Amino acid sequence: MPSDKPLVHVIDDDDALRDSLAFLLRTAQIEVKTYASAAAFLEALPGTTLGCVITDVRMPGMSGIDLLRRLKELKVAVPVIIITGHGDVPLAVEAMKVGAADFLEKPFDDEALLASVRSALRERDGETKRHAQRAEIESKLAALSNRERDVLGGLVAGRANKQIAFDLGISPRTVEIYRANLMNKMQAGSLSDLVRMALTVGMVGSD
Q1: Could you give the C-alpha distances from 97 to 35, 116, 131, 133, in angstroms and in order?
Q2: Distance between alpha carbon 1 and the CA centroid of its chain, in Å?
Q3: Which of 3, 97, 147, 198 could bond to 156 as cystine, CB 3.0-4.6 Å?
Q4: d(C-alpha 36, C-alpha 76), whole Å
Q5: pTM for the full model?
């Protein structure tokens, strides 16, 4: 069930290892959900809370690398930690190329695994915040009129009010009104706030 706390998804066909990992993570106050196969995880994916995924690289059916490729196809941005057996380093390197956040060789140190999970969760948390921030700015931009967007473009390009007025064929006073309106709509406390928002969504002014 989705919650505010990050959820770690452990995927392994080895019951003993799966239970051992779940126990270790819960002991560290980290919420866990376990799956015996990659297919079972994908089936549960819609609507579930995503923190990070820990998966064995070798499993019957869909392997850890197959899962990474599938998540990429589905555009599911979640850090994936791959667990490899002895001698599977080439597979681990391949997994990193496909997009794995980290890999750990069995037998692994408990603290090494927890450190890897916490790093993946921080990465995920930061990315989630960036996505939310971008979406909020884009929503505010969508509420601007065409003329307000024109004035914003001029401001982001570093032009003065008079230059923007000249470029748009309107009076400097009208530019000031548009500027005040868009500052209010964008909830920007200063011009630097406005520029930072525009840069966040890739709106870069040109001369």
Answers
A1: 24, 18, 24, 28
A2: 20
A3: 198
A4: 20
A5: 0.65
Q: How many CB atoms lie within 10 A of CB 192?
A: 9
Query: What does the alpha-carbon distance between residue 50 and residue 71 come to, in Å, rounded to a whole number?
Result: 12
What b-and-e string marks burial along 104-141, b requiring 16 or more CB atoms within 10 Å of the CB?
Answer: beeeeeeeebeebbeebbebbeeeeeeeeeeeebeeeb
Q: Which class is 7-131 in CATH? A: alpha beta
Pairwise CA distance, residues 19 & 206, whole Å: 57
Every domain of the chain and the residues it spans: 7-131, 143-200
Q: What is the pLDDT along the chain (207 residues), one digit of tens a residue?
A: 344 577 899 999 999 999 999 999 999 999 999 999 999 999 988 877 778 999 999 899 999 999 999 999 998 888 999 998 867 777 888 888 888 888 888 888 899 899 999 988 888 777 777 778 888 899 999 999 999 999 998 988 878 899 999 999 999 999 999 999 999 999 988 777 787 788 778 775 444
Task: Name residues whose C-beta falls within 8 Å of residue 172's C-beta, 6 or more positions apart in sequence.
Answer: 161, 162, 165
Q: Which CATH number fits domain 143-200: 3.40.47.10, 1.10.10.10, 2.60.120.1440, 1.10.340.30?
A: 1.10.10.10
